[in-house]
Give the backbone structure.
Amino acid sequence: MTRHKGEFRTDVKGTYHTLDPEEDWVIILEDKEFAFRKRDLTYIEQQYNDGHEPEVIAKELKRDEWEVLFVLCHLAIKGRNIRVFAERKRVMSA
C-alpha cells in the first residue's frame, strides 16, 4: 500500500488513513534518526548482550541513547535473542 502526503498508519494491517485537518496533530520523535547500518544493528546487539549499557553503546556510535533503545525494541520485536531490558509487570484485577 502506498502512503500519500497527509496520511498515517494506524493499525497493524498497515492501513493508511487521512489526517483530519480539523484536528491538532503532533509528530512524535521527529528529532530521532531511525536509519541504521546493518552492521550497527549487529554491533548494538552483540555489545548489549555482552553486558554493555545502551548509554555506552550510544556514545561509541555517536548516536542518541533513545535511538539505541529503539534498536533494542526493534530487535526484540523481530524475535532476536537479546537480554532483558524491560520487564512488564502483570497487574491483578480486583
